[in-house]
Structure formats: structure tokens, C-alpha cells
Amino acid sequence: MSEHPGRRTPGKGLVDGLAVTLKTMTRRSGTQQYPDVEPDLPPRSRGVIALLEENCTVCMLCARECPDWCIYIDSHKEEVVVPGAARARQRNVLDRFDIDFSLCMYCGICIEVCPFDALHWTPEFEYAETDVLDLLHDKNRLGDWMQTVPPPPAHDVLGEPSKEETTAARKAAGPGAATPAKVARPAASARPAAARPGAPAAAARPPAQVRPATAGGLQATPSPATPATPASPPTPATPATPPTPASPPTPPSPPSPASPASPASPASDAGPVEESGAPTVPPPASASPSGAQPTIDAPKAPVAEAKQAAAEQPLAAAPDQPAAQPYGGEQPGTGTRGPGEPDEGTER
Amino acid sequence: MPLWLDLLIRVVAVVAGFLVVPLVVGQMEHKVMAHMQGRLGPMYAGAFHGWAQLVADGLKFVQKENITPRDADKRVFHLAPVVALFPYLIVLLAVPLGPGGLVAQRLDIGLFFVLAVLGVGVVAVLMSAWASANKYSLLGGLRGAAQLLGYELPLVLSAASVAMAAGTLSLPGIVEAWRPWWLLWQAPAALVFFVSGLAEIRRPPFDMPIADSELVFGYMTEYTGLRFAFFLLAEYVGIVVIAALTTVLFLGGWHGPAADQLGWLWTLVKVFAVAFVVIWLRVSYPRLREDQLQRLCWLVLVPVALGQLILTAAVKVAL
């Protein structure tokens, strides 16, 4: 029977087959008894999308980003008379928020894109219907799903802290302060460190040196948001600004274009103005916002340091900004651009 | 005890066993096969691990429409399931359960009777195949006829070896004469008997006549409802019968510790153990091709059975 050349003992295959089935019989079967026993779903399971209506501002981001256009939003504006206010405020009222789950492909882009956490995944999946039209969930049904939204899973212990946490911690500590996030960024400090050895004097504030790129980058982004927290920035900003006016004097050695090049002075001029009053005027989007911000001290101090470094040891700065090296620093470029840019330059 | 009461008790006991034990084996097949394949098997019918699944199946089959093909030979078509089922019931009459005459009908030529009645099965296969007026049925029936006729020979030869060793054709007599060392002496015969018995009841891996993947269940293609259920029941009863015969002829029947009191239990335990092996083989092995089937029969089993006959005779003469 078994004339297979590779097989030594006849009947071994037969015995092996019996052994396999017998071994399988003694093991636990993998059958999930679903309707009787709820499935053990992994965290972040994508079952259905829940809507927290109170958080929705009808910004339409979800509807616009939806790849298959399965979110339908209608709204109207409502005037809210605030007693102390000069004039009535307007706010959006959500009339209709439907998600058509017969079209939804569960990509989760709407949830990702929602800036106000109005949409959430829930692991519920038992909402099959006999009629496909019933898969269009209105805002009440989507709101009912909110009860099934699980608490967010705990943060990974080994992961880097969340952006929200670091931002909050930095704001609480005041600008320029050494937050754990700043200290715990050796990778960020390593890169500017190449330019740093020539500036031991400026290295008096190592955490601030660490910041330039990150602080500049971070503050460039929250710049529109800074008006939201007007309380904290102004107070630290005032003590912080003096160094920046001081900075033009500090680099007397570098070529004169440097000092005007650092628009720190105009920025510092603008800074107090903006602190004092009207953040309503949004700063121009390009590079100026960070300079125009009240919280600019962190970027500015590194600017000064970088300039010092560039002045004292132009070659030391070379690996960081090869393009700027022939000019002995970042001056021409930064002169034309804003104070936010040199940070980027030193960073790269 | 009057004769009619004695007769009634025996017949009722056999019919009850005929109805219960195959269902237990069928349920065992469901569960064992499921777990061997990493599944759970029936879980709902009867609320506890689907113990009533076969009862539910039977109820379902009763409710099904009874369809007879237009071109079918109606009387033969209707008779075939009964012919398939009845021989096994008759066989159970002669199988001893325990010592001291615990057998429905003590026959002196029990072995001969059993083998003769088992041979009727081929008639049922041919009847259903031909009467169905279906080419798949006919193909399956002819395969079945060839298979059953072929495997009848090693079956009878290996049984004859035991009869020769025991010196009697009576099934209780064979069990009484049985000694544990016969396990070794009669091992080839036991193997041949078991394998050809599997082929006799057309169980996988010898289910070429049924071969649902190519012949659409062969001679059972056109059957529905209760008649189809009869065929299925015949398959399970067939397992019981082959397991019981193997037990009685080769595994010592009621022999075991405290055989006088628990003989019936030992017989049942051995029957279920053999039935488990039948199911186990079904799960483990693929179906034999038609030529492999015949080759195994004529080139392996028949020579082995003949050799066993010579060995038995030699040992018998030497003793």
C-alpha cells in the first residue's frame, strides 16, 4: 500500500493520522459560543460610532473627511443673548446628524478628525437590520450608543507622554521651565548639541536649549490657541521678554545684520502689545505667529544662543545648517523670515 | 415464566437496545468527530450539550415530505430501507450480552446465522440503487455491490478462524471458550474482521458507494424523510452490530473483572470502545479509491485471513 519512497515504516502515516485526531480531541476546541457568551473583543474594537451631541459644533469636518460620504449633517444658527455681552452671540444647533452604516467602511477618519471628541468608537456590533434603510442611524440612535463607549485604555507606560499632558504641564509650569517632557527628550537635545559646544555661556539654560525646536514647533501650532489661555502666558512672558531685548546687545561680535535680522526686537515690541490687548487679530499664518506670540521667550532665547554660537564658532554650527554656513550664521535668511524660522533652521 | 412472556421480554429488550444504543453511538459520533476537528458539535438540542440532537433529527425527518421519483420502481423503492435496517435487528437477536444465557436467542449456529443475515445488506443496496432510477444511485449501488461481495470473503474467513479456535459456531459458546491470549493469537483475524466489517457497513474510509462528494450519497440520493432516516439509522445500527460482533468474537465479550455480575457492562464497554475506533477512523482517514478498495480486499485482507486460518489450525492441532 504505502509505496511512498520517503516513508520508512509502512503504516506510520496511518498512525500519525490517528494521533493527530486523538490529540485534537483532548485539546479545548476554539469554538466561540457567541450568542450565549459575549465575545471578548480587543480594546479599540470598531463596532459602531457614537455621537456625543453636546460636543458637536457642526464644523462639518467629519462629513467632509468621510471617504464615502455617509455622514449627513444639517444645522441652523441660533442667537444666544448673553447678559453682559455687547451683542448676541451666535451658535450652531445640530438639527440632523445621520451616519449611514450601510455605506460606512469603518475607517474611523471621522472620529480621528473630530476636534471636539464628539464621535467615539464603541465595540457594540449587534445592530444588523432586515432592511438596509434602517442602517441609517439618526442622532438619537447615535447618541444612545454613547452609553456603550468604553473608557479609554490606559496610557502605555513605556510610551512617550501624550501631547495634551506635556502641553498642560508646560503651561502650568510656565514657559521656559524644565518640565519632565523637556528633560526627557535626549533625542531632541542631541541634535542642537552639536552646535552648542561653542556656546558654554549660553548653555547656562540647558533645558531651554533643548526646547528651541520643540518649543518653537509647539508654540507655532498652538499660537491660535494661546488666546484661549490668556492668563498664564502674559505673566511669565513679561519676565521672559527682557532677555530678548538683551539679546541684541549680547551678540555685538556677529555682523550687524544679525541684530536686525533677529526680529526679536520687533517681536518683543509686538509681544507686549499683543499681551496687553487684542489677541483677536490672528497673526499671519506663515512664520510670524510664533514671534508674535506672547509666549515667545523660549524660541527667542535659543535664537540668541544660536547666534552666539554662530558668532563664536561658525564652523560648529555648520553641521546644523550647511546652507547658512557661508553667511556665518542664519542672519540673512532669518532677517527676511520670522523669528520662528531660525529655530527650525537650528533644528535642522 | 410462560413462554410468551419470556419471548415478549426478550423481543422488547432487543428492540429497545436496537433503538437506544445506535442513537447513543450516533451522538457519540457527533461529539467525538466535532472535538477531533476542534469543534463543539451539537450544543442546543436538549439543553445539555445537545444530547437530544438525534431525536430532533428524527422528528425533523418524520415531518419531511416523502418523495418518490416518478420513474422509480415504487414498491422496491419503498421496501429497500426496511431491508437495509431489518437484518441488523435480526443480528442483535443472536449477540450475547452477558454470561448465563443473557442473549435474546441462543442459536447453536449463531455465527453462521449472523454472517448470513449480514449478507442481506447488499440486497438492500442493490434494491435502492436500481429502483431510484438515478444514475448516481445506480453507480453507487454497483460500487456497493462489488464492495460488499468482495469484503464478505475476508469477513467470513476471519470469523471462521475464531470458530475453529473455539470449536463451536455458537456465539455464547465462542465467548465462553475465549481466553485472553487469543487476543494475540487471533489478532490478524480480528484486524481483518474489523476492517472488512467497516467495509460491510460502508463506513468511511470505505464509503465509496456513498461518496457524497462525487455520487451525491449514491444509492441514498433519492430518499427523503423517514426512509432516508431509516438508512441513516441502519448505518448507526451497523456500527453497533460490527462493534458487537468484533467484541464477541475477538475481544472476549463479557470477560473481565467480576464477569458474573458485570458481564453485560463489559460487553457494552467493549462495544462502545470499538464504536469509538470506528468513528476515529472515519475522522482520520480519507476515502479509499475504488481500485484501492478492491486491492486492499483481495491482495491484503483475503491472504491475511487465509494465513490466519492456517495458523489457527496449526495451533489447534499442536494443542
Count of individual helical segments of chain B: 13
Roughly how many Å is the radius of gyration of chain B? Answer: 20 Å
Shape of chain B: globular
pLDDT average of chain B, as an integer? 86
Using DSSP, what is the number of strands of chain A? 5
Strand order of the largest sheet of chain A: 2-3-5
Order of helices and strands of chain A: HEHEEHEEHHHHHHHHHHHHHH
Calculate the terminal CA-CA distance of chain B, rounded to whole Å: 43 Å
Strand residues, percent of chain B: under 5%
Task: Report on this structure.
The complex is a heterodimer of chains A (348) and B (319). Chain A is mostly helical. Chain A contains 17 helices and five strands. In chain A, β2 (71-80) and β3 form a beta hairpin. In chain A, α7 (186-193) packs across α8 (206-220), α8 packs across α14 and α8 (206-220) packs across α17 (340-347). Chain A is elongated and about 95 Å long. The relative contact order of chain A is 0.09. The longest helix of chain B is centred in the N-terminal third of the chain and has 34 residues, at 3-36. The A-B interface holds A 1, 14, 17-18, 20-22, 24-25, 27, 29-31, 33 and B 32, 34-40, 43, 280-281, 283-285, 292, 296, 300.
Topology record:
The complex is a heterodimer of chains A (348) and B (319).
Chain A: H1 12-26, E1 48-51, H2 61-65, E2 71-80, E3 89-100, H3 109-113, E4 119-122, E5 136-137, H4 139-144, H5 163-173, H6 180-183, H7 186-193, H8 206-220, H9 234-240, H10 243-246, H11 258-261, H12 264-276, H13 288-292, H14 297-312, H15 314-317, H16 331-336, H17 340-347
Antiparallel strand pairs in A: 1-4, 2-3, 3-5
Helix pairs in contact in A: 7-8, 8-14, 8-17, 14-17
Chain B: H1 3-36, H2 53-63, H3 74-94, H4 110-118, H5 121-131, H6 135-166, H7 171-177, H8 182-185, H9 187-200, H10 212-215, H11 225-250, H12 259-284, H13 290-318
